[in-house]
């Protein structure tokens, strides 16, 4: 099982220097992660996954699902309203303060 750190970094045309500056790790650590000489700790896996918008399992090479879809708050609220998981309060525009979770 190979991790996909280097693959994703190259695919996104990101240098090691740029990636480490965004993650707050050393270039040596990243190089070792990419060569699988060292294994990132869980917070580093999570930071890498968040940076590349993938799951930790995908990044580790465990899962083939590539992308976690990002939603804006408004899109997420609208989706939850459409699925009737949330219900608007009054006839106001959607915002986080004006919805509540329906209890089943």
If you had to describe this structure to a student in words, what would you say it looks like?
With 104 residues, the protein is mostly helical. It has 2 domains: 5-60, lambda repressor-like DNA-binding domains (434 Repressor (Amino-terminal Domain), Orthogonal Bundle); 71-104, no CATH class. Helix content is 47%, strand content 6%. It is built from 6 helices and 2 strands, in the order H-H-H-H-H-H-E-E. A two-stranded antiparallel ribbon has the order 1-2. The longest helix is centred in the middle third of the chain and has 11 residues, at 42-52. The mean pLDDT is 80. Keywords: DNA-binding. It holds the Pfam family HTH_3. This is Helix-turn-helix domain-containing protein. Residues 5-59 form the HTH cro/C1-type domain.
How many domain modules? 2
Number of helices: 6
How do the helices and strands follow one another from N- to C-terminus? HHHHHHEE
Total beta-strand segments = 2
CA-based shape: elongated
Looking at this protein, list some descriptive labels:
DNA-binding; 104 residues; Lambda_DNA-bd_dom_sf; 434 Repressor (Amino-terminal Domain); Cro/C1-type_HTH; two-stranded antiparallel sheet; Helix-turn-helix domain-containing protein; mainly alpha
Quick structural gist:
The chain has 104 residues and is mostly helical. Helix content is 47%, strand content 6%.
Set out the fold topology:
Layout: H1 5-11, H2 16-23, H3 27-34, H4 42-52, H5 56-60, H6 73-82, E1 86-88, E2 99-101
InterPro entries: Cro/C1-type_HTH (IPR001387), Lambda_DNA-bd_dom_sf (IPR010982)
Protein name: Helix-turn-helix domain-containing protein
GO molecular function: DNA binding
